[in-house]
Fold:
Amino acid sequence: MSIIAVFNGIFCMGEHVVGDLAAGTGYRIVTDKDLVAEATSLSGMPESKIERAFSSKTSVFNSFTHEKESSIAHLRLALAEVFCGQDFILHGFGTLLIPKEISHALTVCLIADMKFRTGAAAKAQGLPEKEAIKVIRRGDEDCAAWGESILRQNDPWDADLYDMVIPMHKTSLEEAANLIRKNAEKSVLDPTETSKRTCEDFMLASRAEAALAKEGHNVKVNAKEGALTLTINKHVLMLGRLEEELRSIAEKLEGVTSVETKVGKDFHRSDIYRKHDFEAPSRVLLVDDEREFVQTLSERLMMRDMGSAVAYDGDTALNLIKEDEPEVMLLDLKMPGIDGLDVLRQVKETRPEIEVIILTGHGSEADREMCMKLGAFAYLQKPLDIDFLSETIKKANEKIREKSAARNEHGTTAGSNV
Structure:
């Protein structure tokens, strides 16, 4: 026996089955939490951002930051490093990251009908039926989004994805664990020289994908005995230059013998390939009730390689801040509902690290003084030159970077003195 991988939705008894399996086999359990911790160490990204890769709610800034894709690349690398050993049980979303070509991994899906799952939710957490159904559906949405991200299909319960599918509403915990264990003991799952080489290919491809992600790129990587194939799945105007840059990064990796680039099936869609510039502003939130103005502004900032999201009122902006992490906010003062002054006050009370640029056509000197007193980075009057606004955003972004670097340096220094 070598590797058992178990995927399940919530309230399908996955933890119980995996626990019984570990007790019966002596295998260690590797969970999504373990993969996230290792991916955090490999990437330097916060755990919260990597964990968000498992959620159906992608950051509104992701088209510029590529954080989800970078998180997945480093989760894949974390899993590849685990595959260097043997005899473990992988439990969770990470199961879908295992290449089908790795033949010595037994992949298992645990499913159950809604009646069983709502009953399990009531027993485990005391949830009433309606609330349990909501929780289960949210969990299933996350599973479907993960399947779409990894496999390009939104049915993570498809039997073709697994070696075994076990209906838990018809199977006891003991029966499920015994069934998995017996199948894992079959000689067909013994590691072979071919499957070991496939693991080596998986490791090299994962290393290359993570290295490219660290340079701001998002491409699919396949490996075969040292030969890498990089697939570009979004349209790019200067394809030759991009291919040259990708090859220059990948060729430096140990174990790489050759690098080939190609375009994928989605290359001719309207999406534009964007390399993430880690120094440029990529999390700018525009808050203004003048829809045509703010949409045009967003497009013009995008042309200057600045990633932005739009909110048309103060309530929406405050809700977005709770779910996402904007760094710079452009805020109008006069809006229906909560006005800009109240938004500024709440932002600085709850998220003081966000730099707020006031952009208004109706402000007064008293408004300007109040905004600056509350902590605004700048107070600008409409209409204004887009280049001047861009420079102001960059300066706000630089201030954020300097603060972050100072905090990191302080933390390192403090840690070295312990």
Summary: The chain has a mean pLDDT of 90.
